[in-house]
């Protein structure tokens, strides 16, 4: 024992390095063990769904999974196979996995997709945006938009997961919880933005549209990967040397919020008895006819000239409120008078919350808007973190257009807020 201690003392540098390496290896192995326990518990819970008895005449529910293997720097395929696929196959669903090979393929596949009971998106924000765009471009979108959608967060940016699932620092737990939420069947209605250019087909988004300097600088942050945690600040710092102040000028026309109609029941009530139907028909026949106003109130458009450092048009999906009586999207016009230091500091905040509206910004609530850009305007829009060429667009809110599966705890919290 004395010889061992003497050797460790004489070679203290090697001993310290070995101890650190051993500690790191033990911590890594313990993390892998915990991940396997999470997967096993999730599979056991999924198997309970698969073991449920069902009538022999009832067909299995069909689930179509759109998987983007290129998400998360090419790791999404492996993450899906290890964490989500076993849960789906044990649940008793008839699962069909469709892997996309290139950008935009999901839109094309949705146009020819046959009937399915569930649509599951496995990827990031870009995959979600492609799937809902392909879904809502269909000729029979009125029927297909009623199909519930599940989201398995596998991408680098998964904005929607903050709305649908509780926060989790463990990636395996986050993926398994999202997959189990699909099996539990609780859904929430989400708003959708329809963004249409002058010639192009409409694009649909569940988060929103960004146009401005913060977005442009944030896109370039990955180029400075060698700076580690300082890459975001470096991207915003280098952008201020190219041009300052950075202004984006446009004309904005918008219509205010609209009244929210009552939500349609998910299941139609049974047909009333014959005597009830006869009574209602006789009562409507003998009662005096009601006068209905045929006049439709004209849309009250307002126009605004703007010069801003960044403009964002966002849904209210991040702040879901089932008791809201009006439907609208948030338009944030940020002041152009921003110092260079404040620009760098705020840029880091916007990487975490892209649609935050800082103090001093002009906030507008609208149900529809038209954004006119001057001729020769360069740059790009960020629509659900996907890049599109900047052009004049019309943005229309489609309230409660799609239903997404969510964690039952999230839905319970929303319902409690309604009762309060």
UniProtKB/TrEMBL annotation:
Pathway(s): Lipid metabolism; glycerolipid metabolism; Glycerolipid metabolism
Keyword Mitochondrion included in the entry's annotation: yes
EC number, UniProt record: 2.7.1.107, 2.7.1.138, 2.7.1.94
Annotated protein name in UniProt: Acylglycerol kinase, mitochondrial
UniProt topology in membrane: Peripheral membrane protein
Subcellular localization: Mitochondrion inner membrane; Mitochondrion intermembrane space
Main location: mitochondrion
Required co-factors: Mg(2+)
Organism annotation: Cardinalis cardinalis
């Amino acid at each position: 024992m004395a010889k061992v201690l003497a050797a460790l003392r004489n070679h203290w540098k090697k001993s310290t390095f070995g101890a650190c390496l051993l500690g790191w290896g033990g911590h890594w192995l313990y993390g892998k063990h915990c991940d396997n326990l999470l997967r096993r518990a999730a599979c056991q819970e999924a198997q309970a769904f698969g073991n449920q008895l069902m009538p022999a005449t009832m067909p299995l529910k069909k689930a179509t999974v759109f998987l983007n293997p290129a998400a998360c720097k090419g790791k999404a395929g492996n993450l899906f196979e290890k964490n989500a696929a076993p849960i789906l196959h044990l649940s008793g669903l008839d699962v069909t996995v469709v892997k996309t090979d290139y950008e935009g393929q999901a839109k094309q596949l949705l146009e020819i997709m046959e009937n399915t009971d569930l649509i599951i998106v496995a990827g990031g924000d870009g995959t979600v945006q492609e799937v809902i765009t392909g879904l809502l471009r269909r000729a029979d979108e009125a029927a297909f938009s009623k199909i519930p959608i599940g989201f398995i967060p596998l991408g680098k940016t998964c904005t929607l997961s903050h709305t649908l699932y509780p926060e989790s620092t463990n990636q395996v737990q986050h993926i398994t919880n999202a997959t189990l939420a699909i099996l539990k069947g609780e859904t929430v209605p989400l708003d959708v933005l329809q963004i249409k250019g002058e010639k192009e087909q409409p694009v649909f988004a569940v988060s929103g549209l960004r146009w401005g300097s913060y977005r442009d600088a944030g896109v370039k942050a990955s180029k400075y990967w060698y700076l580690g945690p300082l890459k975001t600040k470096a991207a915003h710092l280098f952008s201020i040397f190219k041009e300052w102040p950075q202004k984006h000028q446009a004309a904005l026309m918008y219509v205010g919020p609209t009244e929210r109609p009552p939500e349609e029941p998910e299941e139609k009530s049974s047909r009333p008895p014959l005597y009830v139907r006869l009574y209602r028909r006789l009562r409507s026949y003998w009662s005096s006819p009601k006068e209905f106003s045929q006049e439709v109130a004209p849309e009250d458009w307002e126009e605004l000239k703007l010069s801003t450092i960044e403009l964002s048009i966002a849904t209210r999906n991040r702040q879901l409120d089932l008791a809201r009586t009006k439907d609208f999207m948030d338009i944030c016009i940020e002041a152009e008078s921003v110092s260079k230091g404040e620009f760098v500091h705020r840029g880091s905040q916007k990487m975490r919350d892209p649609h935050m509206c800082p103090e001093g910004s002009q906030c507008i609530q609208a149900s529809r808007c038209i954004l006119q850009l001057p001729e020769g305007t360069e740059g790009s829009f960020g629509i659900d973190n996907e890049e599109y060429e900047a052009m004049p667009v019309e943005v229309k809110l489609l309230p409660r257009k799609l239903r997404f599966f969510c964690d039952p705890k999230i839905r319970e919290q929303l319902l409690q807020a309604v009762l309060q």
